[in-house]
Write a structure and sequence with these properties.
With 281 residues, this protein is mainly beta. The protein contains two helices and 20 strands.
Length: 281
């Protein structure tokens, strides 16, 4: 959602600039400056503040996370050097500024998050888990309206029965979530299952049970990000995705246990919510 907000803001600002080039001067280099303060909670938590508190701020925190606002908090569980970029906007344009943050030591206590632990096994467990679509459970795939009806987040329009999508290339895919560096691997075994409207983006795809099976190599060495809030969201990077591809890479966690995960995600052109049930090996 942060990516959507970021892109929407860009569209509005630059559309305004095109319509009226006299709207104002672009931000100055000073406008894009920011300060960094180590939190009293942990040296691995950094408080970031824009010098100009009256300007629109978008942050790339250097740890696969984006943020918006004049004052934000960045968390770095692992030692290393992270490049933070602040981009500020007004009706005249934008300006960016970067600074490096050096984290001296790991602080694995920052990973003591119950969702991290259920998703990966946590720092005291194996540190990674392998997930797959639960093909033997009714409703392991499904679709419903967006926005949701009074029934809530359920696949009210269609729900797969056991093995409904056998041979389509989805049941043998594996999704590996690693706590170390928030690594993510999508292991496809050579193909993936994609929505029929998106088949043109996958050369060599062929129709299969109303949608398309597409040749698709493993996506290894990607990353995952948890965004917590009213809805807890998992997103994955690069060209990786989870389950049936509908053009998005962000998934709302409906339910999660140590061995099961229920996800809701969007359709690339809106109007639909898709659903997945996954299990661990």
């Amino acid at each position: 959602m942060k990516y959507i907000l970021f892109l929407s803001t860009l569209v509005v600002l630059f559309a305004c600039k095109k319509d009226d080039p006299k709207l104002g001067d672009a931000p100055t280099a000073e406008d894009a400056q920011f300060s960094m303060t180590v939190s009293a909670t942990s040296p691995n938590i950094i408080e970031l503040s824009s010098t100009n508190q009256s300007i629109l701020c978008m942050w790339d925190l250097g740890n696969e996370s984006l943020a918006q606002g004049n004052n934000v908090t960045a968390t770095y569980p692992y030692a290393g050097t992270y490049t933070v970029t602040l981009t500020v906007f007004n009706n005249g344009g934008s300006r960016s500024y970067t600074q490096d943050i050096t984290i001296a030591q790991d602080d694995l206590s920052l990973l003591n998050n119950p969702i991290y632990t259920m998703l990966t096994g946590g720092t005291t467990g194996p540190g990674f888990k392998i997930w797959y679509v639960d093909s033997i459970s009714s409703g392991h795939m499904g679709v419903g309206p967006d926005p949701e009806s009074a029934l809530g987040p359920v696949p009210e329009w269609w729900a797969a029965s056991e093995g409904d999508k056998g041979g389509c290339g989805i049941y043998d895919d594996r999704y590996v979530f690693d706590i170390n560096g928030f690594g993510f691997d999508m292991v496809t075994n050579g193909d993936a299952y994609v929505h029929n409207e998106l088949a043109g983006s996958f050369p060599g795809s062929f129709e299969n049970l109303n949608d398309y099976t597409a040749p698709y190599a493993d996506r290894l060495g990607e990353s995952w990000l948890l965004t917590e809030g009213e809805n807890d969201l998992i997103s994955v990077s690069g060209d990786a995705f989870i389950g049936f591809y509908t053009g998005v890479q962000e998934y709302r966690i409906l339910e999660m246990t140590d061995s099961t995960m229920s996800l809701q995600y969007d359709h690339h052109s809106g109007g639909l919510h898709w659903y997945l049930l996954l299990k661990t090996e």
